[in-house]
Amino acid sequence: MLKAILSRIQQGYRTMRFPAGPPPALSDRFRGLPEIEASACPDDCRACLEACPTGAISRDADLRIGSGSAEAGLRIDLGRCLFCVDCEEACPRGAIAFTKDYRLAVRDRAALSIGQSKRELELARVLDRRLRRLFGRSLKLRVVSAGGCGACEADVNVLNTLAWDLGRFGIQYVASPRHADGLLVTGPVTKNMELALAKTYAAVPEPKIVIAVGSCAISGGPYIGSPEANGGASSLLPVDLFIPGCPPNPLTILDGLLRLTGRIKEKAARA
Predict the structure, then answer these.
(1) H-type helices in 221-262, by residue range?
(2) Which of 7, 120, 179, 229 could make a disulfide contact with 269, Cβ separation 3.0–4.6 Å?
């Protein structure tokens, strides 16, 4: 016991100070919000479209932007994107680049579609007043792995470790859906998990929320179109928060959860 106490004193405070403090250093391999340079992307080039394994990239000849004007160009669906950088490597002009911006969570599925018009990505808004009053200080989530590969599940579990300490924000994972305020779903929702997910959702008392973590839970990921998968949680359940990534970094997940519960009060949009 004495050795354990001495070791703890020597280690000092290890929990990340977030969101007040600076975020932890991200790996050189981290891939965040992609950016498209319109001037470097010719209309007749399809290299990135052909390279994308999930069809996350499309070319829209009439891409409507915030001002209401039209613009031909590319669009990336972050809900389908695997952040594999195949598009970045295939582009002969360097028009697509993945940044280090980890803030990706949104409330609306349509908001995950971004173009080359420099539109704002509408980050997750806080829950409405009634739900925030209920869940803002204490949010219990039942995690459901609906056919995931284990990557998203691992990063979800990381938030319970000493360095992240999700519980300090009043957010906890619970074993029973009857003790939960909502579900956190990973995986594409395979046919074998369809009934289990439906029963788990039904067991959560009202009011309740659903959070989809990872490209599989949002759209089906690499299993899009598979007869053995449903194409994500939103194909069966109403989803309140979408957190893209394959898998999303724990910082991306934490940022989304804190925005949803009102712990991050900055403007919920990015230029």
Answers:
(1) 250-260
(2) 120
Q: How far is CA 248 from CA 62, 135, 142, 213, in A?
A: 31, 23, 18, 7
pLDDT tens by residue, 151-186: 999 999 999 998 899 999 999 999 999 999 999 999
Alpha helices in 24-119 (DSSP H): 47-51, 86-90
What's the CA angle centered on 145, arms 161 and 81, to 5 degrees?
Answer: 90
Question: Hunting for tokens 């952040």 — which residue is that?
Answer: 83
Mean pLDDT calculated for residue range 3-16: 76
The CA dihedral of 247, 253, 256, 259, to the nearest 10 degrees, is -170
DSSP state of 147: S
- φ, ψ of residue 64 to 5 degrees: the values are -80, 130
19 upstream amide cis, omega within 30 of 0: yes
Instruction: Give the per-residue pLDDT at 117.
Output: 58
Read off the pLDDT band of 82 (50, 70, 90). very high
**Going from the N-terminus, what domains does the chain have, and what CATH number goes with each?**
34-102 (3.30.70.3270), 129-260 (3.40.50.12280)
**pTM recorded for the entire structure:** 0.89
First to last CA, the chain: 52
Q: What is the pLDDT of residue 144?
A: 97
Which residue in the block uniquely carries the two structure tokens 């981290």? 30
Q: Nearest 5 degrees, angle CA 262-CA 29-CA 263?
A: 5
For residues 133-155, give the mean pLDDT: 95
